[in-house]
């Protein structure tokens, strides 16, 4: 029984995005030239921050998920005890603070600002028209967490922070897209919900397309075939998604969501590819 509860608690942390964001920032740290110990420290800090955010999200949404009979939510099904998830979120958040600051005072401040923004989203901002702001802030500061711990505490180039912010906004729209109707029924009225399913489908690819363009055209040096190919692919996916949405794709179709997700993966790949350009030469 204890093992099952432990697995359920882990499932409540949103493991997929937790692992994805942790891996992204760790790879960026490696690409920027950080040593193995620093990269491990950065990865641990991001992991703890993401764990705390995921558990916080499910705790805040527990009543709504229970009312909606969400079988995929361990708190809603009773598989994960609320007390255990609360304790796990508190421990993860407490561990995130010293781990972040150990990477450098300014680097830690940047990361903790992003974590605070994510908690603010969970605790109420997601119900407002400014629901996109925490995503933009948190993702935009991730490159700063990597570079501000380097000698001289350099800020990352503007293109990296802009691409991160755009990627965050795109992630927000992509994440919300499948659940817009359920969110509206529960009274959650963030920006995508206010726009509605059809307009969100049309607009969701745009910040990801912009992020890809910034990542292709922003870094120094020639673009190269990889950059142009990635930009062409993203443009094609954006055009297809927008056309499908404008034509009134059926409500249950996941094609716009999957296409937008593919754009996000492309943008993340470009960000990692240019990770070596984050630090000054």
Description:
By secondary structure, the chain is mainly α. The chain has 2 domains: 130 residues, Tetracycline Repressor, domain 2; 125 residues, Four Helix Bundle (Hemerythrin (Met), subunit A), CATH 1.20.120. 75% of the residues lie in helices and 0% in strands. The chain is built from 15 helices and no strands. Helix 7 runs antiparallel to helix 8.
Compact description:
By secondary structure, this protein is an all-alpha fold. The chain is built from 15 helices and no strands. The mean pLDDT is 88.
| N- and C-termini, Cα separation | 54 Å
Q: Main sheet, how many strands, which sense, barrel? A: none
Tell me the number of structural domains: 2
CATH overall fold name of the largest domain: Tetracycline Repressor, domain 2
The CATH class label of the largest domain is Mainly Alpha
Give the C-alpha Rg: 19 Å
Question: At CATH's second level, what is the architecture of the largest domain?
Answer: Orthogonal Bundle
Q: How many beta-strand segments?
A: 0
């Amino acid at each position: 029984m204890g093992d099952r509860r432990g697995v359920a608690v882990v499932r409540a942390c949103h493991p997929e995005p937790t692992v994805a964001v942790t891996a992204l920032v760790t790879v960026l740290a490696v690409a920027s030239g950080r040593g193995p110990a620093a990269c491990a420290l950065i990865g641990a800090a991001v992991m703890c921050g993401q764990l705390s955010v995921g558990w916080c999200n499910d705790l805040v949404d527990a009543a709504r998920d229970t009312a909606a009979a969400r079988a995929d939510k361990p708190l809603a099904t009773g598989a994960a005890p609320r007390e255990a998830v609360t304790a796990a979120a508190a421990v993860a958040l407490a561990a995130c603070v010293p781990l972040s600051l150990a990477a450098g005072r300014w680097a830690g401040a940047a990361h903790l600002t992003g974590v605070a923004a994510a908690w603010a989203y969970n605790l109420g901002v997601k119900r407002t028209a400014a629901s996109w702001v925490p995503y933009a802030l948190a993702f935009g500061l991730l490159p700063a967490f990597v570079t501000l711990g380097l000698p001289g505490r350099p800020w990352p180039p503007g293109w990296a922070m802009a691409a991160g912010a755009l990627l965050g906004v795109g992630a927000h729209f992509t994440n919300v897209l499948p659940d817009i109707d359920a969110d509206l029924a529960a009274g959650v009225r963030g920006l995508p919900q206010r726009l509605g399913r059809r307009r969100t489908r049309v607009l969701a690819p745009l910040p990801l397309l912009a992020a890809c363009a910034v990542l292709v055209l922003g870094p120094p040096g020639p673009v190269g075939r990889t950059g142009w190919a990635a930009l062409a692919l993203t443009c094609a996916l954006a055009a297809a998604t927008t056309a499908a949405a404008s034509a009134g794709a059926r409500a249950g179709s996941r094609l716009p969501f999957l296409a937008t997700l593919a754009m996000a993966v492309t943008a993340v790949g470009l960000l990692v590819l240019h990770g070596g350009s984050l630090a000054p030469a």
